[in-house]
Amino acid sequence: MNRAGLVLLSMCCIFLSACAAGEGNGQAEENAMQNGSYEIEELARGSQSRESAERMMVVRDADTFERIWDLSDQRGERPAVDFDQSMVVAIFMGERRTGGYSVQVDEVRQDGDDIMVQVIMEEPGEGCMTTQAITRPFQLVLLPQLDGEVRFQTQQQALDC
């Protein structure tokens, strides 16, 4: 490749890198979206929260996040969240009489002016062996700070054993 071709290739790479970096708040939100869905980062997940009721909520401030983190009964340090750029979705499945249950944020996408959070609630299927202990499954996920009303759509799934 001649020198002019290398210079042109270098300029294209610089231009594409600048485009990918983005500018402004809207660009960060757009970059976080892939295939029409927003990128989800799991902060915590488990089967033993302190919340006995089924709850799904959006956390947009540090004080509320501190209370939700305590409900998740996680040991260790609470993750730092920049609530100017991010928000947390907390899903508590509520109390179950056995093990084998779990909850998962499957997808977050724009739905008109609203944000749709697709939640899968798994339960043990017919014939599954489970622990005989009370469980309270939960998941906390980090999302980009999004405008609009957040709506939750749940899907029940039985596990095949």
Automatic annotation (TrEMBL):
Range of residues in the leader sequence: 1-20
Keywords, alphabetical: Signal
Coiled coil: none
Domain PrcB C-terminal, chain residue ranges per copy: 87-141
One Pfam family this sequence matches: PrcB_C
Highest taxon above the source species: Bacteria
Matches recorded under InterPro entries: PrcB_C_dom (IPR025748)
Keyword Signal among UniProt keywords: yes
Protein name (record): PrcB C-terminal domain-containing protein
Lineage: Bacteria, Pseudomonadati, Pseudomonadota, Gammaproteobacteria, Natronospirales
